[in-house]
Amino acid sequence: MHNTDMSNGLYSASRRLRLLLWLGVLLAPLLTAGGLLGAWQGGDGPAGTMLDSGGLPLAWASALAILQSLLVAAALYQLAVLLGQVRVEKLFPAQTSRRYRYFAALLFVAAVVHGPLSIMLGAVLAPHDGAPVMVVDMADLLALLVTAVLWLVARFFDVASRLEEDQRSIV
């Protein structure tokens, strides 16, 4: 009985989180578009959204912001679809590890676009006093670390899924 209660609780939580993820899928590109609109008009966008170019030329900063928002939306989409497949009787559907791996990989690429890629572009496109300067933010390094851990968890899901299939084939 306890397992059923726990399964029901996890199922309900997955449904609520799924709604938030769908909201994120919509808001990531919309908020980015608002920030870009404001930046190109020389101020804040709708609802106070703004784009921090990080010293990059606006065209490059815009391209990176669009790419990052699309990657984040795609990552959240993968997680939302995964949570939509969750059932009380089967909390870990067959596609769990694949969807979670896509989620983690897309989020990692988004962190690379925001961090190392923008840092390298900034050093090349906006050198200070003629010399390239790389400004590394600890938040960027932390984002890379967290997304790398998520990807590692995805790999553990893959192994666990294969072990579960092996166990079922033996029985």
Structural summary, described in words:
The chain has 4 helices and no strands. Helix 1 (about 1-40) runs antiparallel to helix 2 and helix 2 (about 60-85) runs antiparallel to helix 3. It has helices spanning about 1-40, 60-85, 95-125, 140-170. The mean pLDDT is about 85. The protein is about 75% helix and about 0% strand. It is mainly α and about 170 residues long.
Strand count, sense and barrel status of the largest sheet are: none
The H-and-E topology, N to C, reads as: HHHH
Q: How many strands in all?
A: 0
Head-to-tail CA distance between termini: 25 Å
By DSSP (H or I, 4+ residues per run), the number of helices equals 4
Low-confidence stretches: none
Oligomeric composition of the shown chains: single chain
The general outline is elongated
| Structural class determined from secondary elements | mainly alpha
Question: What portion of residues is helical?
Answer: over 70%
Strand content: under 5%
Average of the residue pLDDT scores = 83
Keywords:
about 170 residues; mainly alpha; elongated
What is the compact description of this entry?
It contains four helices and no strands.
What topology does this entry show?
Layout: H1 2-41, H2 58-84, H3 96-125, H4 138-170
Helix pairs in contact: 1-2, 2-3, 3-4
